[in-house]
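Consider one such protein record:
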Amino acid sequence: MNRSLELDAAISVRLRIAEKPGPLRALAILLAHSGDSWFWGLALALVWWFGDAAWKQRAVVMFVGIAVTAVLVQVMKIAVRRQRPAGEWGRIYRLTDPHSFPSGHAARAILLAVLGLFLGPPWLSAALLIWGPLVALARVAMGLHYVSDVLAGALVGALIALVIGGITM
């Protein structure tokens, strides 16, 4: 197990760009924040408020998915208690949630990407399928998670989306 954790940390360090200024870091920061739960809660509230019946349904399903995912991820984080990688960037995340496993952002992003396949329209599905993995990668690049954190989060998000998609479709 120690060997796996060491390999995980080594790969994560190689992907890290948090301390390297430039356009790639700026993009990673944008992507890392784009998976924030408050952003999606507000966005889905606006979609529900201004959308037609189909968009209201999408917003409700996605909101429920985000809520279920948040609860499950928090339970797992408390059970595992893996500390985030050392670093300065993302102080708000480090203060409010010191645990890294699994990544809630990766879980949320992949949940939304998979739900997009069930809910459509095709342009939304495509956009979320591109965006989701980029959010997960950005969380590693900015030093907030190890690779295994985002892989576990992605698995959690995908499984919850498949269950919700199976129930709602």
Remarks:
- The first helix runs from residue 2 to 15.
- The helical segments are 2-15, 23-34, 37-50, 53-80, 91-96, 104-119, 122-141, 147-168.
- Residues 80 and 101 are 7 Å apart (CA to CA).
